[in-house]
Amino acid sequence: MATNNTDDNNLETFSLLWLDAAIHTNTENQEAQKQLRACINHVIPFEDPNRCQRYIQTTSSQDRLVLIVSGRLGREVVPLIHQIRQLSSVYVYCMDEEGNKKWAKDFKKVKAVVVNLNDLIFQIKTD
């Protein structure tokens, strides 16, 4: 039986996208994905920046996307996707915090540049 609930049409769907060339090979990243599913159920890993960019561009305007990106890929992708409405926030998870803060400061959707995984998880959960 189909139900007609107009309230559901106004709900935003949050998805967490994680773009990192080592997303599937790094056990620390895999463990973090499990922890993040506790606050955002829909976690989608990407290794290829082009596939991630296409996904973001084709997502419904009702969806809200949170992106975790490595520093190297962030430099490439963030300038290309920053203005997309569905992208609500970006977190740069990297090894060179100071170097990545230099480019990230130009993009208001970049909420944090972090080197520590626990800091990343905490920041996303509190935001």
Notes on the protein architecture:
The chain has 127 residues and is an alpha/beta fold. The chain has a domain at 35-62 and 69-126. It is 39% helix and 24% strand. It contains five helices and five strands, in the order βαβαβαβαβα. The chain has a five-stranded parallel β-sheet with strand order 2-1-3-4-5, sandwiched between helices. Helix 1 packs parallel to helix 5 (117-126), helix 2 (49-58) packs parallel to helix 3 and helix 3 packs parallel to helix 4. The chain is globular and about 30 Å long. The relative contact order is 0.17.
Annotation keywords:
single chain, 127 residues, alpha/beta, five-stranded parallel beta sheet, disordered N terminus
Task: Briefly summarize what is shown.
With 127 residues, the chain is an alpha/beta fold. The chain is built from five helices and five strands.
Radius of gyration: 15 Å
Give the overall average pLDDT.
87
Query: How far apart lie the N and C ends?
Result: 38 Å
- Percent of residues in helices comes to 25-40%
Specify the overall morphology. Answer: globular
Strand content: 15-25%
Uncertain residue ranges: 1-11
**Tally of helical segments:** 5
Class derived from helix and strand content: alpha/beta
Largest sheet properties: 5 strands, parallel
Q: What's the SSE pattern? A: EHEHEHEHEH
Biggest sheet: strand arrangement: 2-1-3-4-5
Structure summary, number of beta strands:
5
